[in-house]
Design a protein that fits this description.
- The chain is α+β, with helices and mostly antiparallel strands.
- The protein contains four helices and six strands, in the order βββαββααβα.
- The strands form two sheets. The chain has a four-stranded antiparallel beta sheet with strand order 4-5-3-6, with helices on one face. A two-stranded antiparallel sheet has the order 1-2.
Length: 132
């Protein structure tokens, strides 16, 4: 999936985001039984609602990585707001240990774009005048 272009009526796009974020105070929340499983299930549900395709998702004890393919209608901050907000509410309601925290996630996150290789695009643009 990771290099398939997505089409709508007005756009053709290939937007892949790599996100990394962690719980507040780097707490090891994914070591709590069933938290990682529930978190991944909720992320899948949220992504389905937003028409985001999950290429990969994995959690370690105190952070998570997500590689997502999105349409151009969503910004990285919109995506993080939906995922962090939705998962925080539910996880804190279902796991009493998490409900004691003032907030589940830090406000910060890492995001990087990935798609067609930058060098490929550079060569394509440079060769536009010499095509004909």
């Amino acid at each position: 999936m990771e290099n398939e272009y997505r089409r709508t009526q007005t756009t053709v796009s290939l937007i892949n985001y790599h996100f990394v974020f962690c719980p507040r105070y780097r707490r090891k929340i994914f070591l709590i039984p069933n938290v990682e499983e529930r978190f991944k299930h909720m992320v899948k549900f949220i992504c389905e609602e937003l028409d985001i395709e999950i290429i990969a998702i994995e959690c370690d004890k105190d952070y998570t990585h997500m590689f997502l393919n999105c349409l151009p209608t969503l910004s990285p901050s919109d995506i993080m707001q939906k995922i962090k907000g939705g998962t925080s509410r539910v996880l804190r309601g279902e796991f009493l240990e998490l409900n004691k925290m003032p907030s589940l996630w830090t406000r910060s996150y890492f995001v990087s774009t990935s798609g067609v290789c930058s060098e490929t695009i550079k060569k394509y643009v440079e060769n536009q005048k010499t095509r004909y």
